[in-house]
Specification:
about 180 residues, alpha+beta, Alpha-Beta Plaits, five-stranded antiparallel beta sheet, 5 helices
Length: about 180
């Protein structure tokens, strides 16, 4: 057998590294791969265990938050006529035009009714943003679920103006839904 091609030291070293690399490639899936997967699974199990240990405290916290929210719902005194009057007076003072005050839409659920009012106004941008703040924060008539400001064109005068569509929502307990 002629082994002259392996006689130089560089060739022997190269063959040794190549053999070691091939060996590691063959052995890795059987040893290191399973070890790393089990380590990751162990870490995930530890996190789940910590979460399970804190579960009773989290349940108590969620119950306290639910009680607080239900208490806040009893303070709601939603009145569509008050909302309409306040929006009209604000728009008159800020030189906005109420283009549409759509009829309210009610979405009943088991214990609550979701009341949605859509208001469309025209005017200056700053005044429309102030109206949104006035509805949600100053007078607290409900939650502003959506606000869309766009440039629109009046069909009769053919002039462009800014128009804002605001969707105001309230959650009312089922027994108080006669508005």
């Amino acid at each position: 057998m002629n082994l002259n091609f392996l006689q130089s030291d560089n060739k022997k070293l190269y063959s040794l590294f190549l053999g070691t690399g091939l060996f590691l490639l063959l052995v890795y899936p059987f040893t290191f791969g399973k070890t790393i997967a089990r380590y990751q699974q162990s870490k995930a199990n530890q996190i789940s265990l910590l979460s399970a240990e804190n579960a009773p405290q989290k349940i108590q916290d969620y119950r306290a938050k639910l009680t607080h929210l239900e208490g806040n719902l009893s303070l709601i005194n939603y009145d569509r006529n008050q909302l309409f009057d306040a929006v009209n007076s604000f728009c008159r003072d800020q030189q906005l035009v109420v283009a549409n005050f759509a009829p309210e839409v009610q979405y009943p659920t088991k214990n609550y009714v979701l009341v949605t009012n859509t208001i469309t106004v025209r005017g200056a941008f700053k005044n429309m943003v102030e109206l949104t703040y006035f509805i949600e924060r100053t007078k607290a008539f409900g939650h502003v679920a959506s606000q869309k400001i766009e440039r629109a064109k009046d069909q009769f005068t053919r002039k462009e103006h800014l128009q804002m569509k605001v969707v105001v929502q309230n959650i009312i307990p089922q027994n108080n839904s006669e508005i």
